[in-house]
Fold Succinate--CoA ligase [ADP-forming] subunit beta.
Amino acid sequence: MNLHEYQGKEILNSFGVRIQRGIVATTADEAVAAAKKLTEETGTGWHVIKAQVHAGGRGKGGGVKLAKNLDEVKEIAGQIIGMDLVTPQTSAEGKRVHQVLVAEDVYYPGESETSEFYVSVLLNRATGRNMIMYSTEGGMDIETVAEETPHLIFTEEIDPATGLLPFQARKIAFNLGLSGKAFKEMTKFIAALYTAYVQSDSSLFEINPVLKTSDDLIMAVDAKVTIDDNALYRRKQYAEMRDLREENAIEVEANALGLNYVDLDGNVGCMVNGAGLAMATMDLIKMSGGEPANFLDVGGTADAKRVEEAFRIILKDPNVKAILINIFGGIVRCDRVAQGVVDAYKNMGDAINVPIIVRLQGTNADIAKKLIDNSGLDVQSAVAFKEAADKVKAVLS
């Protein structure tokens, strides 16, 4: 589950990570009130107005701007709220901005220069250990840094038996070229950041940039936080932070129905039971010359009601030109699935306007094939994987 910047900062702050303070606003007038409050609390005269959407590169799309007075706060907030923000991480249509974060200006003058760093905490799946990735090139796209100057990216793996050790935090601060007060502040920052990552059951913390202020404080100026969905049952305070407006509407509806659905860009809808079989089915579609339009695992229950719900979800995608149902009858009998397909098809009537190929293998597969073939509906049955692939190819050509 992705969070907005301001929500990620709330989590960081709760674990003692110093953050750039800010207040969320949904209107231009609220933004002005937030700016006034920040001025009273922090003394800041300038404010940064940041669009709150689940996408990176907001500054490149005009979603992050500096306001030097209250009039500019109102004008900029009014421009950003309601806009369709297009960034390198959004579609061409962009994402609608519903709220902004009015943040304090932390690039204030002082005795020394400011510096920006990149720090993230994530799981290294190759080793099964958490990893801190960091770089002196903060404020830049980490992908660009990795491509052009890979020697400027450092990693530190954490042994799960010991957690982050003090020498590792010091090593990170040293590799970032810090000394004195800034060195000590960075070690504390890294320790608090890692604790926040573990204790919040997150799968990603990305802070870009981490700022060394002119008076040698270390703080998170941005925060990209992703919480592990599987842990939300024990992190209910974070589950309440979910912003469904930022998520794919079809995926949200499917989730409410108990369907495991991921929207893709292809032209062949998939209805499968089991994640492994679903992945194999998507490969099958690719081999037949099509592109999978979705990942859809209906699970062990595939009665008429569930099949009909799955049909309706798949057909919400206007790019779907065919549907491939690939079910292995282990827990659920194939004849029950076949009857579910037939009943759902009859219930939906003209709503189904694309060819359907059904491959059922396992318990009572022979009975299931007869049910499909004798239904009188425009549904094609298949037995072998290759036969299903050939039929998908035929209906697409």
Summary: The mean pLDDT is 91. Residues 248-396 form a domain with the Rossmann fold fold (CATH 3.40.50.261). The chain has three domains: 1-20+110-247, 21-105, 248-396.
